[in-house]
Amino acid sequence: MALRHAVLAALLDGEYSGYQLSKAFDIGVANFWHALPQQLYAELTKLEKEGLVAGRQVVQETRPNKRLFHVTDAGRAELEQFAAAVSKPSFIRDDLLVKVQVADRIGTASVIEQLEERASAAEAKIELLGNLLRQLRGDADEEEFLRRGARIGPYLTCLRGLAFEQGHRDWCLRITAVLRERQTTDAKR
Amino acid sequence: MALRHAVLAALLDGEYSGYQLSKAFDIGVANFWHALPQQLYAELTKLEKEGLVAGRQVVQETRPNKRLFHVTDAGRAELEQFAAAVSKPSFIRDDLLVKVQVADRIGTASVIEQLEERASAAEAKIELLGNLLRQLRGDADEEEFLRRGARIGPYLTCLRGLAFEQGHRDWCLRITAVLRERQTTDAKR
DNA sequence: GCATCATACTCAAGAAAATGATTAGTCATA
DNA sequence: TATGACTAATCATTTTCTTGAGTATGATGC
């Protein structure tokens, strides 16, 4: 029971199809949860059966028909209950960290490459989130928006996503530099 | 095939029993992976069957007997292959973020409480990791240790863990402040 | 002297998540 | 005019993770 609340949370801002949701889970929602399209479709089906979301068919001419979902009162109640319950702690879980842990014992070359790829992926995400934040707050500056903005939830989670990506990028670059220097030092011996 | 590599990575630094590993997964290893004891025991059994780790029985007088495991050559090879393969991107996945996303739509009181609990849990973790880092680098300062230290892998992953916890704490405190101020502003209206 | 904690591990069941394959029309582009 | 990307989804399977219970002994604290 975990993805379900992320879906409800994402759906709170309007009507979305499974497909649109899966796009949202690639960008904004990715700051607090991640899921593949198949998971979303499955979850939406379950949520609809339980009456927590409701969908309506939208017939389209040039595109396949779609079903738009919105949160029902029962869904909202479920979210409220969830928000009041204790949260599970959050964990880091990252292949690349596992590799760094053993990088000095096995080959470092490939790990360095991957760190650099990650760093530039993080850089791209940082820019994307920067734009998203600017868009969300409109004309106001951040302080102002956070004080009086109507809908700050998505902004707040984006802030966390941004900080996470920045931390990730900085770490990747630092570790790359460290491993690089050790490589040349090793070579000299 | 993910926990398996975290276990191999953790086991690379010496012999550990399942129980000891589960302790390591609460502290240092938690910086790159998380798992419950049951998962570890199960994974060790699998890894042993596949010949990637080997265990030996240690008979103890005052404590229950235990099995100490170490990585075999095949296990090392598996790790090397893993390190060379592409990594899956890392995701945030956090109940609390889901709650913040909807905090301005549903009740904020409980979310604020949870943010504060998280902040102090992060604070505790920060101290713990600070000590761990000091212990790992011994007398040397960080730059020096990273240049010439023998085993920097665990240090590097701890650095990421530390930065993550700091980012998490800062975010929690900031959001707490924002939500608090909005509460009082709302009340005045 | 009783309770609780720490060591050390096992088993089973169930929920959640990831993976892979498939369908089918539209649109842009090379 | 083939190629691939985009919209919109479904189905089946497998892997992974979580939850909960249980066993047994010694040490520590009040």
UniProtKB/TrEMBL annotation, chains A, B:
Give all residue intervals belonging to the Transcription regulator PadR N-terminal domain: 7-81
Record-linked Gene3D superfamilies: 6.10.140.190, Winged helix-like DNA-binding domain superfamily/Winged helix DNA-binding domain (1.10.10.10)
- Residues passing through the membrane, by range: none
Q: Which domain of life is it from?
A: Bacteria
Q: Which InterPro entries match?
A: Tscrpt_reg_PadR_C, Tscrpt_reg_PadR_N, WH-like_DNA-bd_sf, WH_DNA-bd_sf
Residue span(s) of domain Transcription regulator PadR C-terminal:
92-179
Q: What's the protein called, per UniProt?
A: PadR-like family transcriptional regulator
Organism expressing this protein natively = Streptomyces bingchenggensis (strain BCW-1)
